[in-house]
Specification:
The chain is an alpha+beta fold. It folds into two domains: about 120 residues, no CATH class; about 60 residues, no CATH class. It is about 30% helix and about 30% strand. It contains six helices and eleven strands. Strand 6 and strand 7 form a beta hairpin. The radius of gyration is 17 Å and the shape is globular. The model has no long low-confidence stretch (mean pLDDT about 95).
Length: about 190
């Protein structure tokens, strides 16, 4: 798979704002020229999400380049998308490449269970836990959808591989798997 065959839609560029700690003025300009305003962009930054550290990447191009620089493994997800996993050597980024905000509920200390709270994420209630600092990670995922002779970037994020947030437009099998995943996981904020 050649990196030049990965296409990025404006919608994905907007979605990806939530996965960066900061973005460049060129990135912002590209979004505003395509119908998004600064308030929309600011709201994306406020969403709880795993984020790439700026020392690692602050654009989609940087993520794709690092994916090919460090190499990746591939498997197919439950909805037919390709999942690319890249593990970055800690010798290159000793403080990590980003935050990991999705964890299994059962891995939490009992003392944290009483502080969990629900917040809607795209219309689905997901458990959240507020921490003073978020854990870092040296791995990231890129999700792409195969089409005729290329791929569409769906998302990219550091940390744990998370299934999509359940929504009623999914087929029943995919919906139930996604629901089970999110019923067993927590988003750290």
């Amino acid at each position: 798979m050649e990196k030049e065959k990965i296409e990025v839609t404006v919608g994905t560029k907007f979605h990806m704002v939530r996965h960066f700690s900061q973005i460049s003025s060129n990135y912002i300009s590209d979004l505003t020229q395509n119908g998004y305003n600064l308030e929309n962009i600011s709201e994306q930054f406020k969403l709880p999400s795993s984020r790439f550290y700026p020392e690692f990447a602050n654009s989609i191009d940087e993520i794709i380049n690092k994916l090919y620089l460090f190499g990746f493994s591939t498997h197919q997800s439950i909805n037919g998308n390709n999942v690319l996993l890249c593990s970055v050597p800690s010798s290159k980024y000793s403080k990590g490449i980003g935050t990991n905000v999705v964890i299994e509920k059962k891995s939490l200390p009992k003392s944290h269970l009483s502080t969990l709270y629900f917040e809607n994420n795209r219309g689905y209630p997901i458990r959240h836990l507020k921490l003073t600092s978020l854990p870092s990670t040296n791995k990231f995922y890129v999700i792409i959808k195969p089409i005729a002779t290329s791929y569409i970037l769906i998302t990219a994020f550091p940390g744990t591989l998370a299934l999509p947030v359940p929504n009623k437009s999914m087929n029943k099998i995919v919906y139930n798997k996604c629901k089970l995943f999110w019923d067993q996981h927590v988003i750290l904020v």
